[in-house]
Amino acid sequence: MNVTDIVSLLVGLVLLVAGAEALVKGSSRLAASLGIPPLIVGLTIVAYGTSAPELAVSIQSGLSQQADIALGNIVGSNIINILLILGLSALLSPLAVSQQLIRLDVPIMVGVALLALLFSLDGVIGFSDGLILVLGGIVYTVFLIVQGRMEKDAAIQAEYQREYGHREQISLKTWVVNLGLIAIGLGLLVFGSRLLIEGAVAIAVAFNASQLVIGLTIVATGTSLPELATSVIASLRGERDIAVGNVVGSNIFNILLVLGATAMLTPSGIDVSLAVLRFDLPVMIAVAVACLPIFATGNVVSRWEGGLFLGYYVAYTTYLILDAARHENIEAFNTVLLLVVMPLTALMLLIASWKAIRKRRQ
């Protein structure tokens, strides 16, 4: 590894974030100019835009026969979105959670995570698996548009109106500027993904780390930066439904559209290693399931729950580093995590759920 590899990685990250920002800005402004309701813009166009780095990197990795980076990027991004991004957002300000997220979107997130595991059991996520996922993504997008048009909650509509309701007069200049932003964004995403992958592979070789670990950590963190910016800024502004909805929607899109499209475009499909099957995919499912009781306790993600998510993010990252280094304390770390930390967490969530149920009955 040399300085060029590090620069390639960092420049790739910057270009990915800039590309996603340009793509979101151009497409959301164009949609607003065409009279598309702000709620639908936020739920679909912006959600697609913030998942664009994952899509660009995963497809590029798949075409380069680096399936571990592609899959690690998707699985790692979904884990990071909940544990790091949602945790940090809730720590900054407790997050209100709408009933639709609790009743529909989070169960869908859990369902598609289980579907990804099911498709992985034979060791390959192939073209037919990818096609099913992409079709599911199209159906989910249509569902979001229908739900967005039926949304009656004035507070939720006001949030999205403030964030995505800036309507410009339709003119030649509007089309040129916004289409230009979209084109620039796509170009930056393609070029940035190539630089990021080149730098990540070189770093993995230099540190004798697997491409899977690099995909789960460095690459996944980098491609999740647009979600991080969107959710944290929304939390600070008090736009809490956007902060939570962005994370949940991004996780669903990552599996249905990003994983699906990557599997369809990768000539031999995405190979799934035993390490992913036995650990990383179950962790992704577990953090999705953990959202159900946490979101349901008073329809709020509290600061202590955000801190809990962040704690698990640190634990997960520590495990990956210790495991990659084959550290002698990895077994002791696993024992403490499985026999002490997780049972205590389950107990706290049960107590919180019980208190929430009692409060509703009273």
Task: Give a written overview of the molecule.
This protein is an all-alpha fold. The chain has a single domain (3-327), classed as A middle domain of Talin 1 (Up-down Bundle). It is 83% helix and 2% strand. The chain has helices spanning 3-33, 38-50, 52-63, 67-92, 99-120, 127-150, 154-164, 172-206, 211-223, 225-236, 240-265, 274-296, 303-324, 330-361, and strands at residues 95-96, 124-125, 270-271, 300-301. The strands form 2 sheets. The protein has a two-stranded antiparallel sheet with strand order 1-4. α4 (67-92) packs parallel to α10 and α8 (172-206) packs antiparallel against α9 (211-223). The termini are far apart. The mean pLDDT is 83.
How many individual β-strands?
A: 4
Specify the structural class.
Answer: mainly alpha
What is the domain total for the residues?
1
| Broad shape | globular
The helix count comes to 14
CATH superfamily: NCX, central ion-binding region
Mean of the pLDDT scores? 83
Instruction: Tell me the fraction of residues in β-strands, as a range.
Output: under 5%
CATH topology term: A middle domain of Talin 1
> Oligomeric status of the shown chains?
single chain
Biggest sheet architecture? 2 strands, antiparallel
Distance between the termini: 62 Å
Main CATH class: Mainly Alpha
H/E topology pattern: HHHHEHEHHHHHHEHEHH
How are the SSEs ordered, and which strands pair?
Elements: H1 3-33, H2 38-50, H3 52-63, H4 67-92, E1 95-96, H5 99-120, E2 124-125, H6 127-150, H7 154-164, H8 172-206, H9 211-223, H10 225-236, H11 240-265, E3 270-271, H12 274-296, E4 300-301, H13 303-324, H14 330-361
Antiparallel strand pairs: 1-4, 2-3
Helix pairs in contact: 1-2, 1-8, 2-6, 2-7, 2-11, 3-4, 3-8, 3-9, 3-11, 4-9, 4-10, 4-11, 4-12, 4-13, 5-11, 5-12, 6-11, 8-9, 10-11, 13-14
